[in-house]
Structures are given as structure tokens and as C-alpha cells.
Protein 1
Amino acid sequence: MKRRHIVQLAGAALAAPALVARAQSFPARPIKLLVAFPAGGPTDITMRVLADNAGKLLGQPVVVENKPGAGGTLPAQALQTAAPDGYTLAQTPLGVFRLPYTTKINWDPVKDIAYVLNVTGYAFGLVVPADSPIKSWTHFVAWAKANPGKLSYGSTGALTSPHLTMELIAQKLGLELLHVPYKGSADLMQSVLGGQIMAAADSTGFAPQVEAGKLRVLNTWGAERLAKFPDAPTLKELGLDLVQNSPFGLGAPKGTPPAVVKRLHDAFKQAMEQDSYKTALARYDMVPMYMSTTAYQKFAQDTFAKEKALVEKLGLAKPQ
């Protein structure tokens, strides 16, 4: 037994320098970054700028691969079968922390992802077509109360932050709304502009359509009004004690060497600080929202508990 223990210790001692050397030489090939929403939307556009910045710092390309659907959780699910070598990263939206409460899965969003850093969050709001008879949030609420279950609104997917926030608002105000899920902002905007749905709850990827006079903003969901839409009240101003900015960042497979995680963290943190990324975010009223590896892991733990309470409150938890 003593001899076996000595052999194990010797093996570990030999392996440690190898791991350090591997981390020092990382990356030796392109890195894949899985993004949870379709190409052409605000998330995709801003993440591609971040990936380009990080790739230049790392000395290898960071290649974006879009994996939309399932409420933004497909990239995190893909991490469960990816090699823990730092060459696969995933965007981790808040929907990841709701997944075990709504779907049967065999992995833990807190324990089975190596959180690297948080990069930003969304600015959300509710829009209607410019020619809609619904001219304000007061009109929206009145129309919904007069027509239970008939006021249709779209979001970027079932159990995403826009969907759950709207359902929480409806619950608070006693409204019955008709939710229509989409895979991403591009499809959602086409539908609201085309009249297939009456309203859209989304991040401010709708800004170009608002500025072109095609959509009207009824409210925004931050702590303060957005500079781009100064006439649109916040939910808090409308008497709803809600703020939603849905922070998101990057995760790697569980077991990724800490030195590799640190290399990724340092590169993406520098990438966040570049003007090109800040400018891309500003197009959608987003800002850098940095959390370190340790802080982001703590955020994951805390959010996991908060999302459980929200899903249960809305009656959306899966049967036990």
C-alpha cells in the first residue's frame, strides 16, 4: 500500500508540470465560443466583437458558433460533453440557472460549469408597432384586461428573462396574456413588424426599428430610463417594483485547469475594456458588466436559488 501511494504521488508530481506547461502554451489552436442566440441579433453582434478582441490577445481566433433555442441553454448543455481543455466556451444566460426547475437534466448548472467571467447584461423593454392602437402602457393593461388571453406578445424563447418578466408583470396586475416564443430577436422583430403578434418583449435590439418610426417603446426594464428612449418609463415608474438586466458571461467545461481559466479570464477582461466592444454594446444600450471568476461563480450560486423561487412563484416548475 505504501509503495502504491508513493507511485501515485510520483505520478501527480510528474503530471503537475505537464499541466502548467499546457496552460502556458494555451491556446495552440482556435477556440470555439458558443452563443445562445441566432446570428444577426444584439447578443451575436456584440459577442463577435468581444471574440475578435480576445482572439487577438490570445494569439488564436475565437470562433463564434450560434446555438439558438431551448431558452438560451444549448451552449451550457454542450459544455457537459466538451473536453475540459479551454477550447470550448459558452455564453451562459440566466435561463441556464432555471433549467433544472423546468426540465429534467442530469447535470448541475452551478457545479458542472467552470465560470470564467461575466461580460455584460441586457437592456430590455416592451414594444408595439407604431400604428398599434395601444399607445401607452396604460392602454396595454386596459386592452389586456378587456380581452383576457388575446393580447399576444413575443419573446426570445420560453423561460427566458423577457418571458418570465412579462409573466411576473401579468401575475402582479392580474392579466392573462398570450405568449409566443421565438428563437431570437431577428425572428421576433419580423413577427411584430409583420403584425403576427401585438407586442414584443426583448432586449433593445429593437432600437433601429424604433428610430425608423416602425415601433413604439411602452416601457424599459432598467433601474433608470434609457438615454436612447427618454420618454419610455421604467417598470418601477409604472408602479412595478422590478428591474431586469439579465447579466451573462462565459463558462467552460467543468475540470478546465485553473491556469487555463485564468488565461481566458485575463484575455476576455482586456477584450471587454476595448473601445470597439463598448461601442458595440452601446448600440443596444448595453454596458460592460464585469465579474471576476470568483464573483461570477458566487453569482451563479445566488442566481440559482433566486430563479427557483421565481419559477415556483409563476407555477412553471416541472412536476416532481
Protein 2
Amino acid sequence: MEWIDWQPIYQDIVNRLSLDTIMDIRATQLLTELLKDIEPDPLLQLLEQRIINRTVVICGAGPSLEQHIQILKERNDYQDMVFVAADGAVSLLLEQNCTCNIIVTDLDGDYNHIKQATQNGALTIVHGHGDNMDKIRDVVLSLGSVLGSTQVEPTERTFLWGGFTDGDRACYVVTNYSPKRIILAGMDFGKVVGKWSKPKHETHFAAPQRKVLKLEIAQELITALFERVDIPCTILESVLGNE
């Protein structure tokens, strides 16, 4: 995603959510500095290799994710699928003994699970924004070789794929590398948040109004993306019925 194309979309999100663009820029600068000794090109090549011509399952942390994974496990092509976890969805994939190939995270999910999946071989993309700089400082270096992402103008160590929340950003990342097809799992876009989204939640919980707005933006971005790209996409429907 070129900054000139993303900038008006980002500015609309800034206006709707009253984001602090200066803090977003500072987060990108911080992430860039922390990743200065990690050469991104081999990681970018690995990212492409994991996605190109593959069936990719992008997992949001919505309440339906557990049922969706169980449905996918019954398919004949399950073992050949590539699984991308949007942040906290990694917790459910670990719980279900489902291989996590790629993580897209702003570090809101369970850090121990993100680290475990990364050590198990997941390629992790850490996103920087104005609200997560403390987490970036605390944990990025301990995750090892990761890629950085941004929602403002990119740098030599933070990349702009597009997208705003972890789920829709994962969609933008994946479509950039020519998958054969995409399946969206756990992308409920409702008013109930999956318990995997935040650590220490034992049950799904009602989405605060700001979260509802973020999910609306995520759905808009995903809809616009798949109207633009020529990649078959299946959206698994909510199976809980009351999101």
C-alpha cells in the first residue's frame, strides 16, 4: 500500500476515532529504532513464500472462531491451509493445536501465547500505534526476528500494508502476496468480543462503543479490499447467532 493511497483512508479513521497522529508517528519511530538490527528482507520473502498460491485462513478473535476452526478441521484440505492469527486469535489456535503460521498483532493479545507461537515458527508482524508504545518497548526485542507495521508513513523497518485493526490489516497483508484463496474465520463484526481478544477474559464480553466503531471500520476496509482484488474469499458466518 502506497502512503499516498492510504493517507486519505487513514485521515478518515483519525477523524472518526479522534486519533493522535503525532503519537502514531512516534510509535512508528520507536518500532523502527527497536528493529534497526533486524534485516527485514528475508522475513518479507518468508512471508510471501507462506502465502503465495496457498489457501489462507485469516482468524479474527470473534466469538465464532472456535466453531469455525472445528469446521475447518473437518475439511480434506485442512492440513494444507495457512493460518494467520489476528492478535488474540493466536490463543485459540494454540488451544486447538492448530498451527499458527503468521501473527498480525498490536500486542493486545496474550503476550505469552504470541511468544510461544513465534518460537514455534510463526512469522510475527508487530504493529505500532499511539496507544501501544509501552508494550512495544517492553516486549518487541524479546520476540526475536519480527516485522514491523505502521498506519502512518512507512520507514525502512515498518511497512504499510493497509488496514487498521489486526483483523483487517491481516487481510491487507495476505492479499499483497497472491494467495490462491482466503477464508475469514472468527470475523463476527458484532457487538460481542471474543474472550481471546484480551488476556484474562474467561468469557466473551460486550463490546464498548469505541470497539463497535472500530469493528465497523474493519468491516468497511475488508469490504473495500475484496471489491478491489481478484482473490476468491469465503467468509465463515457467525454460528452463535447473537453477536
Protein 3
Amino acid sequence: MLQSYPPSLSLAITAIMTALVCIITLVFQISIPQTQGFFNLGDSAVYISAILFGPIIGAFSGGVGSALADLILGYGVFAPITLVTKGAEGFVVGLISNSLIPPKKINTRWKVFISLTGLIVGIIIILIGLLFYSTPWQIGVGILGSYQFFELSPIPIVWVVLGCISAALIIVVGIRTRPEVSWLVFSILIGGSCMVLGYFVAEYWLLGFGPAAFVEVPFNIGQMTIGGIIAIPVSQSLKNTLPFLMVSQE
């Protein structure tokens, strides 16, 4: 159900969550020189905002908070793309997790759907890893925008293992947890896919990176996966401990 709050409380929540998304995005990054983008943990805050407060606050805090982080870190060229992409991510996660009807039980169709989704994510990670990351490449690890660059030479088996782990994690969580939790997994997979696809299209066509745009796909899938792992338990815990989150519903 969509949450409904007094205007003053909605404004305060929106400001706090926007700042939280920005701060968490700033705290830790992995730079990707091929696309001039970066991996970060901000998606976890986007998901928490969307799950707790719905699609409107999720969209605003996700889009504006992430775009502000881009500007602060010197990635201004990405700010408009981030505003739209992360805004759509927050909106979709908030809409599905709060508005649509979750399954009442984990039935066979749901198990098949989640299993296929997990397999697709795993295959994408393996294929892109093998195609674009099996030769030496450079990344930069940084805190608050200060990077230290170094070269990695991952062996092909690493991507097979990562793909299998990602697929197994999605499948196990999706079919072995309570229906409401598996529904959150589904909402994050759909919303996160909007983020992954949005950045890929923008980098491939608008920014002219061409095939280099594929390089960022595994990182963005990683952001989605890690963000979900953080956001689901945190949001569930906050719902149980912060009574004002349940002020009213409509």
C-alpha cells in the first residue's frame, strides 16, 4: 500500500532520504575509466527510500541525490542521465513494492519466474565478464572522490564463479523466503534493471562509448545486487522499529 504523510513530514523525509542517497554514493566508489563512470553503494539508499516511502519519494531522492553526487565527484556529464535513470529506478521499486499485489504464497510459477530471472542475470555477468574483462584492465578505488588506480588481470573462471553465485543468490532468496520478501527481491530486480539498461543505452548512444558501454554492465548489476542485499533487511527492520512509517495508508 502507498504511504500517505502530512506535507511537512513528506518534505522532511524527502530531504533526509535525498541527502542519504547522496552521502552513501559519495562514501565509496570504484572508478571505471573505460566509460568514465563509477561503481557505488548509493543504490542501497535508493531502494530503502523507495521501499519505505513509495515511488514519489523514491524517485526524487534516487534521482536528485544521485545526480548531486555526480556533480560533487566531477561526473557532471552523467548527472542528467543519473537524474532520469536513478529516478526511474526509485519510482519502479517504490511502485512495485508498495502498490502492486505480492504473491500470497511461493507457488510453482513464481519459483520458475525467479529461477529464470536469476539464470539470466548470471549468464549476463558471465558473458560480459568473459568478453570484456578477461584481459588486463584498470580501475580506481576511492573514498570521497580520491582515487588510487591499479590494474587487474582477472582469469575467466572468476566471472563464471561470480555469475553462478549471483544466480544462486537471487534464486535462493526469491524462493526460500517469505512472499513479501521475495516480492521486494522482484521489485529490486525490475527497478535495478531499469538502471542497468538506462546507463547502457545512454553510454552506448548518447555519450558515444559504443562497445565500451558493455564494460559497466556487470558493475551496475553488482550495484543492484549489493544494494538489494543491504536494502531488504534494513528496510524490513526500519518498518518494525520506526512507528511513524505507518502513520497512515491509502
